[in-house]
């Protein structure tokens, strides 16, 4: 008789945001209907992250019987990723499942990078066949469906947004487990901005050679907003570009335009501020080493292209970053 294997699954639920219950239903629906096993059984636990005690109200929505309830400061995905990495280092799970959206994609990518695993976004279903996990997702702008086999474990899956409409009832009871290795030592981690290098300001028109690029979009709201972003970029030592709507509105000179109608760049870091993310613009920055998007709309198309997403006012965030940059030591004159 062949022994039944166990697949250790961790559902990751951030209860600090307004979408917590919807994400909980999505995770529960996927675990019930989207995960197919052959010769294995599931051992599942929910990692419920909440700001202070805010997550207690969402406990009943957790999609699994077992729950690890972790309190942490709000808006700290770096701390969540560190907590998950600590859990993984202590035995962890074979499969991590994250809800759809920029936050889920960011956490999955951070965890896979730290733990040496594999990550896939937009997952519709997953099938365990032997030691392989084969996932189904849409491809070619959702015109086709493809199957992809993931590489090394842990497998980090970000669900397709269609799972947000799932109707999965939570278990009638929950068992909250103590998780000492995920508590104070991880939560008290220092802020993520530990080292800041202030770069010399790039010469005008040097968008192609910029190491750091800041791009203002229509989300800046006005010419004054664009001017404030441009000033913040200069204080950070960054090149400054704009999207086509900004140039067409006359909020910035057309020689600052990034995209098909302007300049194609390949900076080490590109920060977009209030940029929607039209394909013509993405073409201009797709070779950037790292893209960080700041926008009040976490569902904007640029979020799918970005490595990190900040859901906040772009002007305020850029000015705060500029303040930090000005306090950093200047470039080495040698």
Report on the architecture of this protein.
The protein is α/β, with parallel strands linked by helices and 334 residues long. It folds into two domains: 5-187, Rossmann fold; 212-327, TPP-binding domain (Rossmann fold, 3-Layer(aba) Sandwich), CATH 3.40.50. 27% of the residues lie in helices and 28% in strands. The protein has nine helices and 15 strands. It has helices at 20-34, 77-89, 102-115, 184-187, 223-236, 244-248, 279-285, 302-305, 314-327, and strands spanning 5-14, 35-37, 40-51, 66-72, 95-98, 118-129, 132-139, 144-149, 155-159, 175-177, 212-216, 239-242, 269-273, 290-295, 308-311. Strands 1, 2, 3, 4, 5, 6, 7, 8, 9 and 10 form a ten-stranded mixed sheet that branches. The chain has a five-stranded parallel sheet with strand order 12-11-13-14-15. Helix 5 (223-236) packs parallel to helix 9. Mean pLDDT is 83; it is low at 180-194.
Question: How are the SSEs placed, and which strands pair?
Answer:
Elements lengths: L4 E10 L5 H15 E3 L2 E12 L14 E7 L4 H13 L5 E4 L3 H14 L2 E12 L2 E8 L4 E6 L5 E5 L15 E3 L6 H4 L24 E5 L6 H14 L2 E4 L1 H5 L20 E5 L5 H7 L4 E6 L6 H4 L2 E4 L2 H14 L7
Parallel strand pairs: 1-3, 1-5, 2-6, 3-4, 4-10, 5-9, 6-9, 11-12, 11-13, 13-14, 14-15
Antiparallel strand pairs: 6-7, 7-8
Q: Tell me the major beta sheet.
A: 10 strands, mixed
- Estimate percent helicity: 25-40%
Structural class: alpha/beta
Order of helices and strands: EHEEEHEHEEEEEHEHEHEHEHEH
Estimated radius of gyration = 22 Å
CATH architecture call of the largest domain: 3-Layer(aba) Sandwich
Give the distance, in angstroms, between the N- and C-terminal Cα atoms.
Answer: 70 Å
Number of DSSP strand runs = 15
Within CATH, the superfamily of the largest domain carries the name: HUPs
CATH topology of the largest domain: Rossmann fold
CATH class membership of the largest domain:
Alpha Beta
Task: Estimate the strand proportion.
Answer: 25-35%
Unreliable spans are 180-194
